[in-house]
Amino acid sequence: MSKKKISYNEAIHEIENILNQIENEEPDIDELSENVKKVSGLIKICKEKLFKAEEEVEKILKEIE
């Protein structure tokens, strides 16, 4: 997967596309392996973005108090 910055929504959309492809088609084992690796990387990106957003929201809420 490229090092290009990808938004959370783009990552989720790509994950959904890959899952739909896996569910609706019979990918060969090499393609399946690559798709699983790609989805794993996209999930990691999403988790990082969610964690960062949570930290930022908590910081803002503490500043309000």
Please write the string of helix (H) and strand (E) elements: HH
The figure for the number of domains is 1
The level of helicity is over 70%
- Span from first to last CA? 42 Å
Number of DSSP strands?
0
Strand portion = under 5%
Number of helices: 2
Average predicted local confidence, pLDDT: 91
Report the uncertain regions: none
Radius of gyration: 16 Å
Quick one: overall form?
Answer: elongated
The major pleated sheet works out as: none
Backbone structural class? mainly alpha
Structure summary:
The chain is mainly alpha-helical. The chain is built from two helices and no strands.
Kindly describe this structure.
There is one protein chain. This protein is an all-alpha fold. The protein has one domain (8-64). Helix content is 82%, strand content 0%. The chain has two helices and no strands. It has helices at residues 8-24, 29-64. Helix 1 (8-24) packs antiparallel against helix 2 (29-64). The longest helix has 36 residues, at 29-64. The protein starts with 7 loop residues before the first helix and ends with a helix. The mean pLDDT is 91.
List keywords for this structure.
mainly alpha
Task: Describe how the helices and strands are arranged.
Elements: H1 8-24, H2 29-64
Helix pairs in contact: 1-2
